[in-house]
Structures are given as structure tokens and as C-alpha cells.
Write a structure and sequence with these properties.
526 residues; Cytochrome Bc1 Complex, Chain D, domain 2; 3 domains; 13 helices
Length: 526
């Protein structure tokens, strides 16, 4: 049976829409679980569905590898399931006290989309300099991001006010698509994002769509969907943000054991310790339902002393890393830190610790998040089906200095894409990269001048690109090419391997591993 999108009246009851409500602290908005909605962006079923499509749309990113959802999945409590990627911090040195543990993002790219060697990450994916906060419940704060830089007033690119209040979610939504680390390339303009949305097939990389979302996008372009959601034609930066924010306002995790009065005796004891012995509610406010005052504070994490927005603790037990730096890998480490900082008047006993962890870890977890029940149901991302590097095989062959040329091969090969690309890095700067593209993988043990060959030497072509200047291991090349739009080619793989003439390499060439490239289109797949 196909499910219908809810009527506005039922949707309003579901999320408890309040057009304006402010907490006594003036740091939060709405009255949990009732969200506050900007009068200029009313909540409608079509707009929520459009926002949901955009939230899970990997094609919003400049190379099709990142969606908003990539760093905000239910399984991680609305945060990043891959959190904990090391970033060098302010001293630009890895493995020092100020290292951050953020989210893997984009391989560095110049304004044309060509790959660059990043000073910190080389041609590996860059990492964000903050741990991704949960998106669940974000609608209740007057400002978002750890530093609260996205406030209630939403402005267009010229600085004109679009929404005068209650619009922190809209203000935040316009940052990631043009961030060169999160979803974009260097100097990516919003006009490029809009142009891409105008030509792509909605959710062409996603599979397992919830039925209401599948019904919403079937046979439609994003132009059609924006017109349906907003009542007039036009894809714009502002409408993108308003749709994303509308979807996020439905993500209210208020079915926890704490809310349903189903906490276990151990969880209840932990809640008592949380409030009285630990006085945790001084910052993680209980009375507003958010377990956060929304204020800025510091907890004196070594190397990361800074004031950040106090996070909600709802679903904190599902998050893979904790605090703004991602310094802590689990709740037990956080509780130990609070003890060491003497936030508790005396060390916890073993029983008290178990109780506090039971309350935080499970007492504040919404089971709908764990089950992916609405509103937390979702599609499967392409990056989950084919994780970065999973399409590579075989052995690389070292060049000067022992550097192994490395393919960048995780950009999805979308049917009809005008700007598909492969990259090569860690090669001899100033040399030339030769990309071998064939219809079959070579048999195990096949070599060329003693070098492992991973593409069958029949029915192949070779593309040449100059490598950027630099010494050993510094060269980077980009192979950009349009892909055919022939539906019959879906699922037919191609195999690639890169070679670099290198006088210091055994056999005169350095070589990458092989990679399997397959044309994809979930919307047009037979």
C-alpha cells in the first residue's frame, strides 16, 4: 500500500507547530516539542518532502559524493556515523594537543573542480574542524553551529533580510553546499549549486526511498518539485534553505523513555544524580525539554578551551564522537572528564557511574530513531553502498621516494553526467599521468615491464594529463570527462589504472591500483 503525504493539519499536530514561542532563557525558541516556524516559511507537506529530498541529495555537492545527511544520520543520533577524522587544529600539525576530530568531507578541488593537493590532507578527503552536532532538535535553538554564527535572521546573498526571526535553520543551510571542505570546491558560487539542481534527476544516487518520498519525486525534476512546494517556478538559494529547514523542523525526538515515563530504575537513578549530585542541569536544562540552555560555555577540554553552544543530550548515546572537538569517543570518557574537572563534588562510585551512563545512553534515546520510523525514515545513500575506496583493487607500484600513486575514484559515475572525473595524486610532480581505461579486469598476475597490470590489455584506451609541479609524491592530475546517457550502459563496468613515467621507478613507471567504475542511475535503472 502506498502512503500519502500527511495533510497540513495532521503535520502541524505531529510536530506541534507554534508560529512564535520563546523560552525564558531567550536562547531557545518554540516550546518543546512544539517547534517555532518563521511566518515567512510556513510548514507544508510538499515543502517538507522537498527538504527531505534535498537533505539526502548527494548530487548537491560539487562532485556527487556528499549530502547533508552524510554527516547527519539517525544511526548516529542525527550526527556523523564517520565522525572522528583527525584534523590538525590551529597549529597545522597532526598528533598535537589541539587536533580536532571532525567529519570526512571533500577532496580539495580548485574553482574548476580539478583536484588539488591540500597542505594537510594531500589528496585524501579533508576533515572538518568541528565534530558535526546533531540535527535532531536543532529547530529549538535561536542560533546554530557550535559558535552560534547562524542566527535567527536569514538574509540573501546581498544581505537583504528574507526572514526576520526564528530562521536559524535557514541561515545554517546555505553554508555547507559552498564550503570547500564540506560539499563544494574552492570559491564555489551558489549559482553553480542552483544550475546543478536544475539539470539533475532527483535522488538519482539514492535507493530504498520511503514511499511518500518516492511518490513525491517520481517522474519529476527539481524544477517541478520547487514549483510544487512554493507555488511558483524557480530554484533559488533561499528556497533551498527554506525547504531544508522545513524538513529539519519535523525531526523532533520526543519519544524517549524519559518522555514516555518508561525509564528503568537504573536510568531514573542516573537522572537523579544528573540533576542533584552532578548539577548537570545547570547547563543541560531539563525544564525546557532540550537538555540544553542554548548558551555558550566551556568544559575545559585540553587543547580545546573555547566557548561553544551547549548541545542537547537527546540521542547522545548514539553519537560516535562527543563535544565540539570530537575529542571523546564515548560517554564514559565524557563522565571521566567531568569528574577530573570536578564538575561532580566527589568521584562517582561504580554504581553511580552505571546509572548516569544508563540515563544518558538510553534514557534519552528515541526508539523511532533506532528503527528509522517516521519522521526519521530515510533513503540509503550511494556512499553507503559504495564507500570511498571500496571499488579499488590490486597493488600499486612505487615511484621516486617510494611514493605510491593513488587514484581518486569515489566520484559516482552518474548516467549522462557532464563532469565526471577521476584523479591521481602522490605521483612525481611535473611528469605525465596516463589513465588506462578498459572493458575488463586483467587476470591475476598480469604484468607490464614487471609492473602489476590491473586492466586487461585488450579493448582499452589511454588518456594523458599533465601532473602538477612539485617533487616526489607531489603531482596531482584530474581526468574530467562527460559520460554517455545511454540507459543500456547502466551496470556495465569499466576498469581503470594510472601510470606515471618515473626514472627512479623499477621498470620506469609508477602505477596506481586498479578501480572498477560503473555507470549508475537509481531513477533510470532497469
Amino acid at each position: 500500500m502506498k502512503l500519502r503525504a500527511p495533510r497540513l493539519s495532521s503535520l502541524s499536530r505531529l510536530v506541534g507547530v507554534a508560529f512564535f514561542a520563546a523560552s525564558v532563557s531567550a536562547q531557545t525558541i518554540g516550546s518543546f516539542p512544539s517547534v517555532a516556524v518563521p511566518p515567512g516559511n510556513p510548514l507544508t507537506p510538499d515543502k517538507v518532502l522537498l527538504g527531505k529530498a534535498l537533505f539526502f541529495e548527494e548530487q548537491v555537492s560539487s562532485d556527487g559524493t556528499m549530502a547533508c545527511a552524510t554527516c547527519h544520520l539517525p544511526e548516529a543520533g542525527g550526527a556523523d556515523i564517520h565522525a572522528g577524522t583527525r584534523q590538525p587544529g590551529n597549529d597545522h600539525q597532526f598528533f598535537t594537543a589541539d587536533d580536532e576530530f571532525g567529519s570526512p568531507g571533500m577532496v580539495r578541488q580548485d574553482p574548476t573542480g580539478a583536484y588539488l593537493r591540500d597542505p594537510a590532507f594531500g589528496i585524501a578527503r579533508q576533515a572538518t574542524n568541528r565534530n558535526a552536532p546533531t540535527v535532531f532538535g536543532a529547530a529549538f535553538f535561536d542560533a546554530v553551529f557550535w559558535d552560534k554564527r547562524a542566527g535567527q535572521i536569514f538574509r540573501d546573498e546581498a544581505g537583504q533580510v528574507v526572514l526576520p526571526a526564528l530562521a536559524a535553520l535557514e541561515s545554517q543551510a546555505v553554508f555547507p553546499p559552498v564550503s570547500p571542505i564540506e560539499m563544494g570546491h574552492d570559491a564555489r558560487p551558489w549559482s553553480e549549486v542552483v544550475a546543478k539542481l536544475e539539470r539533475i534527476r532527483p535522488l538519482d544516487l539514492a535507493r530504498d526511498l520511503p514511499q511518500p518520498l518516492a511518490d513525491f519525486i517520481v517522474g519529476a525534476t527539481y524544477g517541478d518539485l520547487f514549483q510544487r512546494a512554493f507555488g511558483s517556478p524557480g530554484i533559488t538559494r533561499e528556497r533551498f534553505a527554506m525547504a531544508i529547514a522545513s524538513y529539519e523542523r519535523t525531526l523532533v525526538p520526543n519519544h524517549t523513555p524519559y518522555d514516555l515515563s518508561t525509564m528503568t530504575p537504573l536510568q531514573t537513578t542516573g537522572f537523579t544524580i544528573f540533576q542533584i549530585q552532578g548539577n548537570c542541569s545547570q547547563c543541560h536544562t531539563v525544564s525546557n525539554g532540550l537538555f540544553s540552555s542554548g548558551l555558550l560555555a566551556t568544559i575545559n577540554v585540553p587543547g580545546h578551551q573555547r566557548n561553544v553552544k551547549i548541545p542537547t543530550l537527546r540521542n547522545v548515546g548514539l553519537q560516535r564522537r562527543l563535544t565540539s572537538s570530537g575529542f571523546f569517543a564515548n560517554l564514559d570518557e565524557v563522565v571521566t572528564h567531568y569528574e577530573n574537572q570536578r564538575f561532580f563534588p566527589s568521584p562517582l562510585t561504580a554504581g553511580e557511574r552505571r546509572a548516569v551512563l544508563a540515563f544518558l545512553g538510553n534514557g534519552l534515546t528515541d526508539e523511532r530513531v533506532l528503527r528509522r520510523d517516521p519522521p526519521f525514515d530515510r533513503p540509503t545513500l550511494h556512499s553507503e553502498v559504495e564507500p570511498v575506496g571500496s571499488n579499488q583493487y590490486g597493488q600499486a607500484w612505487p615511484g621516486t621516494g617510494g611514493f605510491l600513486p593513488e587514484l581518486v575514484s569515489h566520484v559516482p559515475a552518474i548516467l549522462g553526467s557532464p563532469d565526471f572525473k577521476l584523479g591521481l595524486g602522490n605521483a612525481l610532480g611535473g611528469s605525465t599521468a596516463f589513465l588506462m581505461i578498459g572493458a575488463a579486469q586483467s587476470a591475476s598476475g598480469t604484468t607490464f615491464h614487471g609492473i602489476p597490470l590491473h586492466v586487461a590489455p585488450t579493448q582499452f584506451q589511454v588518456l594523458a594529463r599533465p601532473l602538477s609541479a612539485g617533487g616526489a609524491g607531489q603531482g596531482v592530475a584530474t581526468f574530467q570527462m562527460p559520460l554517455p546517457g545511454t540507459v543500456a550502459l547502466i551496470g556495465l563496468p569499466r576498469y581503470v589504472q594510472a601510470f606515471v613515467p618515473d626514472p627512479d621507478a623499477i621498470g620506469g613507471f609508477a602505477a596506481s591500483r586498479g578501480a572498477r567504475i560503473e555507470l549508475v542511475s537509481e531513477r533510470l535503472a532497469p
